[in-house]
Specification:
Largest sheet of chain A: 8 strands, parallel, barrel
Oligomer: heterodimer
CATH topology of the largest domain in chain A: TIM Barrel
Low-confidence stretches of chain B: 1-5, 25-35
Number of strands of chain B: 4
Number of helices of chain A: 18
Number of strands of chain A: 14
Order of helices and strands of chain B: EEHHHEE
Mean pLDDT of chain B: 56
Helix content of chain B: 10-25%
Largest sheet of chain B: 2 strands, antiparallel
Distance between the termini of chain B: 22 Å
Number of domains of chain A: 2
Strand content of chain B: 15-25%
Low-confidence stretches of chain A: 472-477
Distance between the termini of chain A: 29 Å
């Protein structure tokens, strides 16, 4: 990667076709390895191999690794398998640094279903800084944290946003991934203005900038990665980028599902990336070291914030609709942002489910309209806590349907088990057999074409066994 | 569709399909194949997952054309 700032775009499953059409429009591909396969999340029981990265390695561009699975605010350290998988990805693409989020994604009781903000106090600073250093030692690479979204109001006694971010960066002696859309989202929702946050940051630590767009939801601006960077945010970026002497990369984030939904095509993205190249050209001249400055850790002298464990546990419960724990502060209990978080957690879980099992979702709509799909998914969510991987969510839905037998859901349950088997076989190469009470070679194309399946004949005892086979996935070990 | 159908005693029909071929069963084509990657963790996003809206808005018109926002 050259020393001057370049322009990148986030790779996500579903973006390959679009990006392949505009290979000259971007310099760098940012990859989120945990989104690419369970093995790259360190959660498949096998070591990742080059095959897990094949779709991104097909692009000749330099790549940078952005982790989404081990935010620095988590209580538990990542497992050896998780760190090993991240190291594998970083080494495979020789990532100049590795980033993850200055957030947490669960409490002692389990996964929260969403990235959540830390309590901004000395305890969180020390914890995050230690975790960043720990990961840096294990990866053997520079590490940066991403500045996150916070839909909550400022909590009593907490450090201001910019002060908190600066304290973590100094205590960890690390780089910063300055997500300007996240900061702008926070500003629009009533937190600290972007300009004030930026003024407090050690700007020579910023190695990367994220840009994106969002939309309004329930009175909030949400970080949805749903469109091209707005002119207003580009204007803000134009005032910030020239102040960043070690900026190496400006990365545009957009969810692949939103591209056609926004009426955009590859040419629109290419034009937008050209605008970002002009922005990158305005970056400050490279610093003397030509790389993120490391100048030793500085302890945070700020007062203590809320207890980390209690905060993580309380917020995890609250955003999943559980009653407020006794220890939760009145400010947190009354925070209107909790309602938004609850909706976003529910939608993220539902989206993961229908994304991984589209035929099941479509069949439920064909059987009983959108309300049928909603009632089944809502029942499942109430029955089963969130899981990090979609396959675990599918297993939860499988268990839920098994525990709630309903005559008209029998075929949906069969299709769900087929989709689970299909995805797992495609991922690990092992053959799997599922059973149907109606001919799957007629049923599945019918659902795909949007036709409700014909009711099974009650007196037809035929059982169809469908075995899915695949080529083995290449393993690194 | 490549498949083999084999009758067994007792009214059991066995069907074997390669996973790669199975992804063409539902006419999603590339979009369905891309779902493979969605076995991984959620992406870096703090907003609204539009796939849930897409799934609920799925409709079939009188000509049996699928109209689902976001899908080509």
């Amino acid at each position: 990667m050259r020393s001057r700032a370049q322009v990148g775009i986030v790779y996500a499953p579903g973006m390959a076709t679009i990006l392949a059409a505009i290979p000259d429009a971007f310099d760098v591909l940012e990859i989120e390895p945990q989104t690419l396969s369970p093995a790259l999340a360190g959660r498949s029981g096998r070591a990742p191999g080059a095959g897990d990265l094949a779709e991104v390695l097909a692009f000749p561009h330099p790549k940078v690794v952005h982790s989404v699975g081990m935010p620095f605010g988590n209580r538990a350290r990542p497992t050896p398998a998780e760190v090993g998988a991240l190291r594998f990805a970083a080494d495979a693409v020789d990532s100049p640094w590795v980033s993850d989020h200055l957030s947490f994604n669960g409490g002692r009781a389990g996964f929260a279903g969403f990235l959540l903000p830390l309590p901004q106090g000395r305890g969180a600073v020390r914890h995050a800084a230690a975790r960043i250093g720990w990961l840096r030692d294990r990866l053997g690479r520079d590490v940066a944290f991403e500045t996150g979204v916070n839909y909550l109001r400022p909590q009593p006694g907490e450090m201001p946003d910019g002060e908190f971010l600066a304290a973590v960066a100094e205590a960890a002696d690390c780089g910063i991934l300055l997500d300007l859309h996240n900061l702008w989202t926070n500003e629009r929702n009533g937190r600290e203005p972007v300009a004030r946050v930026v003024d407090r940051l050690p700007l020579d630590r910023v190695v990367e900038v994220h840009l994106a767009d969002g939309h309004e939801r329930a009175g909030y601006w949400v970080d949805a990665h749903s469109g091209l960077t707005s002119g207003e945010l580009l204007d803000i970026a134009a005032t910030v980028v020239p102040r960043l002497p070690n900026l190496r990369l400006i990365t545009f984030e957009m969810g692949p599902d939103y591209v056609p939904a926004a009426g955009l095509g590859p040419d629109d993205l290419a034009r937008h990336l050209a605008d970002l190249r002009a922005l990158a050209a305005a970056a400050a001249p490279p610093g003397p070291a030509g790389r993120p400055a490391r100048r030793g850790r500085r302890e945070c002298a700020h007062r203590r914030g809320p207890g980390l464990d209690a905060w993580r546990d309380e917020l995890t419960l609250l955003v999943n609709g559980h009653p407020a724990p006794a220890a939760a502060t009145d400010t947190l209990r009354a925070d209107p942002g909790l309602g938004l978080y609850r909706e976003l957690v529910a939608v993220a879980r539902s989206g993961a489910l229908v994304g991984a099992a589209p035929l099941t979702a479509r069949l439920l709509v064909l059987l009983g309209g959108p309300g049928r799909l909603e009632s089944v998914v809502e029942g499942f969510r109430a029955h089963s806590p969130p899981s990090l991987l979609p396959d675990d969510e599918l297993r939860g839905l499988d268990d839920y349907l098994a525990a709630h037998p309903d005559s008209d859901l029998g075929v949906a349950h069969e299709v769900l088990r087929y989709e689970r088997a299909l995805l797992r076989t495609a991922a690990d190469g092992r053959p799997r057999t599922v059973t149907f009470t109606t001919d799957p070679t007629a049923l599945l194309p019918a659902i795909g074409a949007g036709r409700a399946p014909a009711p099974a004949e009650d007196d037809d005892p035929t059982i169809y066994e469908l075995t899915i086979v695949s080529r083995p996935v290449e393993s690194g070990h | 569709m490549e498949k083999s159908l084999q009758s067994r005693p007792g009214g059991v029909v066995s069907v074997t399909i390669p996973a790669e071929v199975a992804f063409d069963l539902d006419r999603f084509g590339q979009v369905q194949k891309d779902i493979l990657g969605k076995l991984g963790c959620m992406a870096c996003c703090s907003g609204f997952d539009i796939r849930w809206d897409f799934a609920r808005q799925f409709v079939v018109d009188s000509e049996l054309n699928i109209r689902q926002p976001g899908l080509p």
